[in-house]
Amino acid sequence: MSTISREEVARLAGLARIDLTDAELTRLAGELDVIVQAVATVSAVATDDVPATSHPMPLSNVLREDEASEPLPVLDALAAAPATEGGRFAVPQILEED
Amino acid sequence: MSDLIRRSAADLATALQSGEVSSVEVTQAHLDRIAAVDGAVHAFLHICTDEALATARDIDARRSAGEELHPLAGVPIAVKDVVVTKGIPSTAGSKILQGWIPPYDATLVERLKAAGMPILGKTNMDEFAMGSSTEHSAYGNTHNPWDLDRIPGGSGGGSAAAVAAFEAPLAIGTDTGGSIRQPAAVTGTVGTKPTYGGVSRYGLIALASSLDQAGPVSRTVLDAALLHEVIGGHDPRDSTSLTDPLPDLVGAARLGATGDLTGVRVGVVHELNGEGYQAGVRARFEEALDLLRGAGAEVVEVGCPHFVHALAAYYLILPSEASSNLARFDGMRYGLRVEPSDGPVTAERVMGATRGAGFGDEVKRRIILGTYALSAGYYDAYYGSAQKVRTLVQRDFAAAFDQADVLVSPTAPTTAFKLGEKLDDPMAMYLNDVATIPANLAGVPGLSLPSGLDQGLPVGFQVLAPARADDRLYRVGAALEMLLEQQWGGPLLAQAPELEVTA
After folding, report:
1. Chain B residues with CB inside 8 Å of A95's CB?
2. Chain A closest CA to B169's CA: distance in Å?
3. Strands of the B446-454 sheet, one edge to the other
4. Is the overall model pTM greater than 0.90, yes or no?
5. B2 flagged as catalytic
6. Per residue in B134-149, pLDDT tens?
7. Which H or E element spans position A76?
């Protein structure tokens, strides 16, 4: 049984903001189906009495002293930007309509 | 071949301290070697000739002025391209970061610079460290120096191949599921994944933040310990960095090299051996166990019943974390920006076009898998379950370390396979990491060292220790290395075929 259809891959690629070609959609659907079936075995061993672990080392809030420090200079931060304007990152329009 | 490039980092350090050689001579010898063989090996994506020689000259001048220097001052090193280096291109093997020059250094790079170690260049890798063969690099394959038609492992194939081909005495790797240890295994070199938090992650381009760990790549166990001590220790800029001081790693390696393991309990992990492991890999493993017994170690078998589910859990946790971490590559602040060929040029459409053009196949595959695992309706069944398996793997380790001081297994199920052989079968590729992944899920340290050859190709032996007990890796590793080299009559790499040298 197929768990990931071509349409599902297209929906996920949209969520992940990755444009895919038709050929990529078809190929990924097949590949992801195999992978998902292989990894889905985890749900069989993960019973309700087992707590989840998100991290290898137990850590509680790690805070530093509230002291001012030198940030990266603005020009250094902007140096690799695709576009800048007035000392800021220049980005395309955010909304499709005006 | 110049003798200098064959020497270990520890030997080079001694020769530099005594004034037998200068750092400029050592650094130039490695740059010459890179020029002679890297056309065939392709371990490097970027070579820092001027910067490396400038550091070497500076160290030589300071040494002759009588300044007190770090023991490794003047010993050159290669750095995996996933580590950011100020003023030096850092791509993580991806087209989306082609030409990106970071404005800052990773903490571990600052520490290399503070120790006075010339950086020779940046090494090739699977894109964003996703892979086990370095074939997913956007910049071409790295070739295994033992057989140029074969993979050097991955994701850190460039770092492993660089030290195996004598292009660098040391290198930096990163290990999220085996990316230091598996390349070490298939290239006949040494690599350590430290305890999670043992080496700062500040300045590593993140793949899966709860699994990523940087560590040393070398040709000897002692050299790995020396480098581990340079880069390890607390860093306030990484909130997951351990505050505990590092154990005495170099001391442990020197102790191990005496060859005495009396009283050390070595646990053979039942689930990381047997079916799926190449016959020659198993044979070299059994022979190494005999040597450990001969050195006085007590070898016992331990069961880790949930390790069989570690691979599946890993390929849910890693893509989930990666899908979130790689969201930063959006074409807005750095890296590639691609505008859609038609329609309105909105930020959202630019992101889709940029990521569609800038990411390779494996990266797309894992981001979409991670997006799926985290999406509504699937989260509990996939990501939630994988996190529970993570608990079970950690419990297995805890129980096993009650019975043994270290755990051992073959590092990888096979020796190096042919380039292209597994490229079209993602699951077959993922299985290369079956023995290395459990350590990442639990945060425990692991080391791989060469344990012999199978049909002319290196086999790796893995040692695992409890969290914060990285010194045990070096004691047991150095003991086994000494005993094996007594049998071989020298290092395993002395048996590697000579690479053709081009002028």
Report:
1. 346
2. 31
3. B44-47, B119-123, B77-80, B170-174, B214-218, B190-193, B446-454, B457-464, B406-410, B265-269, B298-302
4. yes
5. no
6. 999 999 999 999 999 9
7. helix A74-78
